[in-house]
Each structure stands twice: as structure tokens, then as C-alpha cells.
Design a protein that fits this description.
The complex is a heterodimer of chains A (309) and B (261). By secondary structure, chain A is mainly alpha-helical. Helices cover 81% and strands 0% of the residues of chain A. Chain B has 261 residues and is an alpha/beta fold. Chain B is 38% helix and 26% strand. The longest helix of chain B is centred in the C-terminal third of the chain and has 18 residues. The chains are: A mainly alpha (309), B alpha/beta (261).
């Protein structure tokens, strides 16, 4: 009797888990991923077919349709690599390769990640610092903001080589120049978000602090800063993703330094499309992880601040 | 009776895009220690502006005003008054206790002193036991009580209240009015209270200042004959209705009804 009840309960729970997965985000996400994969494989056949056809014609080979499809999915330098080729390349170049080797994607990912994180930290600090100056000083609001906006209209691809080469000429190489480019991109969303965030307290909250004759530092510490945190996290999500782009772009200018950007570069020199896609996919995964880490930090802080969310 | 607030020919003109607006014109008023003074009038009559001038949140353009013998600026830096706004304006990231502690932290009270004052003021506004709640977990009336506790925490003699119960329903408002009277009797503070409700003004006040708009001015000052001890049903006595009638007359004399349409 008891065990029967337990068994039914067990089944019930499993069904619950399935329904929960289905009704939550997992179901829809899986469907989208499946759709993308099907489309991808189809496109791989379509795009790699002409070259494969020519190869087979030259060799005088007659192949069945399924063999032909398989051939388009296993070329060495395909126009569009199939997903399993990319995953295989990532597996080979991370797990099966020594981490200290220059062939290891994990090694290159680490280089990119460290430049990204350093640049992101610089960028966030610079963004917050500029926002604090801007909200406390009317003149700096009007004089700084146009320059900050102008800074983002300059193509980063044009600036990155100048920064990397210029700093290299004075003996600064390695992580720092790349982090600088990350900072250049990532401070912008932070400064825009934080100016809005630090100005988000309501007029009566500011008036309240005035009735206590609170010092500007107290107003900042007890009112403006806590009120701005939701804006800070929203900006940091954007900032961390473009930090990664900055690091990759910075790497393009210094092939000796390594990093995912260099893998992209050498891949395109040698027509190693699988290598390019592997580096691309890893960069995307890295960005996704970083953005979700910011999300985790945000949830932690929100809970500590007694948020209803 | 010593004068806590003294205004002489006080005027304040706002420069707006549509030209100057006379928010206050030649206001003369004396408020004695321990009085409960209500400011009543239609919107635009300057009652909130007058409160904000007392609090040094606005600067008068002409005339004199003194708070406890000081200028408003000195009174503010000496933390001579507590201010309760129309909205509770609690900081959502602070618990009720931490919100009450806000002025105490700013003014540098010791931790143990803070604890004592939080406990005492929350007791005064009947919020004992809600220390660890966040504002969003409280009803509107409880939030406003927490904001009153915050204004009481540092023990200023003067309490300035700007339509503190304006956004609450009448049942809650009756209850809070009763509590406010009790609190006033216990603490012996001077209270300046802005309202647009005639029954509320008459029920609470020892002195009612009737104001009218364009330009904002005082049309009548009524010293209430009602006893200090006021149960809610005092509002049905002839004395109460008589005072209410005089307030209404004062508002009519200031053309408040016509202008407000």
C-alpha cells in the first residue's frame, strides 16, 4: 500500500518535472536550438555542395545522395562547417590538447577572458567615476557628455591598432593594451546608465536628505548609490559583452599575443573555417557566461537589498 | 507662550515660463510652542510652499521668518524640525528599522542610541514588531506611520507634515488622526499640518490657518475652542460643526470655491 503510494508519487513527480521543463523556458529553448541545428545542417549541405561536386567529378566518383551529404558535412575546409565538426574541433583543441600549448583553445580563451575582465573592471570603474562627476557638476555634464558620445562614434577597428602599436612602441605590451580597448568600449553603457541611475532618486527623497542637512557624501552613499544599483547591473550586462568584443578586436592587432581574436585571424589566413567557427562559438559562449554571471551577482545584491523580485 | 514660528510679511514669487507666480504674499503668522496648527486651502494657495519655506526647502523672496529664533537655514542645519512628506518616501532597500535609523545615522547617533530610538518611535506609531519588514511589505498607512516615526526619531521639537494622510482612505485616515493626536499629547511637540480636508483640520488643530490662492495668502486664523482631549465623535458636536462652518466661511471669503470651480 505504502510503496504503491510512493510509486505513484514518484511517477507524479517525474511528470511534474517534465511538465515543468516544458512549461518553463527549457521547452521553447530546445525547440529553437533544434530548428537552428536543422537549418544549419541544411545550409552546410547547400553551401558545401558545389565544391564537393567538383571534387567528385574530378575524381570521377559516383556517390549516393546520403554519401554526398555526409561528404559535405566532413570537408577539411568547408565553406560552412557542420555543427558537429565545430564541436569536435572545440573538444580536440581544449580537452585533448595540452593547456599550455599554443594550439589549445582553452589557452587562447584564457588570454581573451583575462583581457576582457581587466578591461571590464577598468571600464566599469571609469564609467562610474565619470557618472559621479557628471551628476555632481553641471559644467562637466555639458562638457564631458558630448566627448563621451563622440568617443563611441569612432570605429573601434581604427583605434585598436593605434593603441596596441602605440603602446607597444613604448614597451607596454600583453594584457594591458587589449584591456584598454575593452575599457574604451565598456565604459560607455556604464556612464550612461549610471548618470540615469544616480539621478533616479525622487525629488522628495532628495528633499528628505536636505531636511536632515545630510552632506553630499551621505546623500551619495545612502541614497544615490543604492538607488542606482539596478541601473549599474543593466549597464554591466551590456558592458561585459562588449568588453569581450574589445578584447578580441585588440588581439587582431597583435597576432603574437594570442587569444581568440588571433585564432580568428590565423583561421581566416589559412582558410581554416572550422577553426574560425570554433573560436567564434567559444567567444559567444564566453560572453553568455559572463553576462549570466552579472545576472547572478545582480540577483544576489537585489536579495540583500530586500528586493521584492 | 514662546513663539516657535514667526513670519512677518513673508512673500515668495516663483519665476515661471508663464510669468511670475505669487505663491505667498504678505503672510503674517505666529505659532506658539506646543500648538497643533493646520494649514487649509485649495491647491495653489501656498500652504505647502509655506511649510517648505519653514523647512528651508524654498527661499522667501521678501519678508522675514524665524524658527525657534533662527533662520530656516540655521534651523535646518541644527535639525530643529522633522518633516513628513505627502508620500512616505521610505528607502525601499532599507528595512523599517533602518529607515527610521536613516536620520540617526546621518546625525551620528551611537548604535545603541539608535536602537533605543528606533524601538521607542516605532512603539509611538504602533509599528513595534515590524522592524525587519521592507516597505513593500507594508500597507500605505503603515508606510506613512513609519515615515512619521522617522521624523520623530531625532526628537526635533517641531514637526512639519505636508498632507501626510492625503493619499490614504478615510477609514485609515480617521485612525491615524486619532493616533496623531495621542502622539502629540504624549510628546508635546509643535505640529504644523497641511491638509485640504476641513474635518481633519478641525479635528486635529488648536489653530487653523485658512489660506486662499492667487496670490497665496492667509484669509483667517481660527483658534479652536475644542478641548485638547478629542474622541472621534467630537466631530458630531455643535462646537465642532461651528468651527468647521467658520473654516468654510473663510475659504469662501478667499473665493476659493469660485476659483476652483
Amino acid at each position: 500500500m505504502t510503496s504503491a503510494v510512493a510509486a505513484t508519487a514518484g511517477i507524479g513527480r517525474r511528470e511534474n518535472l517534465l511538465t515543468r521543463l516544458w512549461q518553463g523556458n527549457t521547452g521553447p529553448v530546445l525547440i529553437v536550438v533544434a530548428a537552428i541545428l536543422i537549418f544549419w545542417y541544411a545550409m552546410a549541405v547547400h553551401m558545401n555542395a558545389p565544391w564537393q561536386q567538383r571534387l567528385n567529378d574530378r575524381a570521377g566518383e559516383e556517390v549516393s545522395f546520403t554519401q554526398f551529404v555526409d561528404q559535405t558535412w566532413s570537408q577539411k575546409k568547408p565553406l560552412l562547417p557542420a555543427p558537429h565538426q565545430i564541436v569536435g574541433e572545440i573538444w580536440n583543441a581544449t580537452v585533448l590538447t595540452d593547456i599550455n600549448s599554443r594550439r589549445s583553445l582553452a589557452y587562447h580563451s584564457w588570454i581573451t577572458l583575462s583581457a576582457t575582465l581587466l578591461g571590464f573592471a577598468f571600464g566599469t570603474a571609469l564609467g562610474v567615476g565619470l557618472a559621479v562627476i557628471i551628476i555632481h557638476n553641471r559644467a562637466s555634464d555639458q562638457s564631458l557628455m558630448p566627448w563621451i558620445i563622440a568617443s563611441q562614434t569612432v570605429p573601434i577597428l581604427a583605434i585598436a591598432p593605434m593603441v596596441v602599436v602605440g603602446l607597444g612602441a613604448v614597451g607596454i605590451t600583453g594584457l594591458f593594451p587589449k584591456a584598454l580597448i575593452s575599457m574604451y568600449l565598456s565604459f560607455f553603457p556604464v556612464v550612461v546608465g549610471m548618470v540615469k541611475g544616480l539621478r533616479s532618486p525622487e525629488a522628495i527623497q532628495i528633499d528628505l536628505m536636505r531636511t536632515y542637512s545630510a552632506s553630499p557624501w551621505q546623500v551619495f552613499k545612502m541614497l544615490r548609490w543604492p538607488a542606482s544599483l539596478p541601473f549599474l547591473f543593466a549597464s554591466m550586462r551590456v558592458g561585459v559583452a562588449i568588453s569581450l568584443i574589445g578584447a578580441v578586436v585588440g588581439e587582431l592587432s597583435n597576432a603574437a599575443g594570442g587569444g581568440l581574436g588571433v585564432r580568428l585571424l590565423t583561421g581566416s589566413y589559412n582558410g581554416q573555417t572550422i577553426q574560425i567557427w570554433a573560436a567564434l562559438l567559444l567567444a559567444a559562449a564566453l560572453a553568455a557566461i559572463l553576462v549570466s554571471l552579472v545576472g547572478v551577482a545582480e540577483r544576489f545584491v537585489t536579495r540583500r537589498m530586500g528586493g521584492a523580485a | 507662550m514662546t513663539s516657535v514660528v514667526s513670519a512677518k510679511n513673508l512673500s515668495l514669487t516663483f519665476e515661471t515660463n508663464d510669468g511670475p507666480v505669487e505663491a505667498l504674499k504678505d503672510v503674517n503668522l505666529e505659532i506658539g510652542k506646543g500648538e497643533f496648527v493646520s494649514f487649509i486651502g485649495p491647491s495653489g494657495c501656498g500652504k505647502t510652499t509655506f511649510l517648505r519655506v519653514m523647512a528651508d526647502l524654498e527661499s522667501p523672496t521678501a519678508g522675514d521668518i524665524s524658527i525657534n529664533g533662527m533662520t530656516p537655514d540655521e534651523a535646518r542645519t541644527n535639525r530643529a524640525y522633522g518633516y513628513v512628506f505627502q508620500a512616505a518616501a521610505l528607502f525601499p532597500w532599507r528595512t523599517v528599522a533602518a529607515n527610521v535609523a536613516l536620520p540617526l545615522e546621518i546625525m551620528g547617533f551611537s548604535k545603541s542610541e539608535q536602537q533605543q530610538r528606533i524601538a521607542r518611535t516605532l512603539e509611538l506609531v504602533n509599528l513595534a514588531g515590524f522592524e525587519k519588514k521592507y516597505p513593500w511589505q507594508l500597507s500605505g498607512g503603515m508606510q506613512q506611520r513609519a515615515s512619521i516615526a522617522r521624523a520623530l526619531a531625532f526628537d526635533a521639537d517641531l514637526l512639519l507634515m505636508d498632507e501626510p494622510f492625503g493619499a490614504l482612505d478615510e477609514i485609515v485616515r480617521d485612525h491615524l488622526n486619532e493616533q496623531l493626536l495621542k502622539l502629540w499629547a504624549e510628546t508635546n511637540k509643535t505640529i504644523c499640518f497641511v491638509t485640504h480636508s476641513i474635518p481633519e483640520a478641525v479635528y486635529l488643530s488648536t489653530k487653523i490657518v485658512v489660506m486662499s490662492p492667487r496670490p497665496g495668502r492667509v484669509t483667517d486664523v481660527i483658534d479652536s475652542p475644542l478641548p485638547k482631549d478629542r474622541p472621534l465623535d467630537i466631530r458630531e458636536t455643535p462646537e465642532f460643526l461651528e468651527v468647521a462652518h467658520r473654516v468654510r466661511e473663510g475659504l469662501r471669503a478667499g473665493h476659493s470655491y469660485e476659483e476652483e470651480g
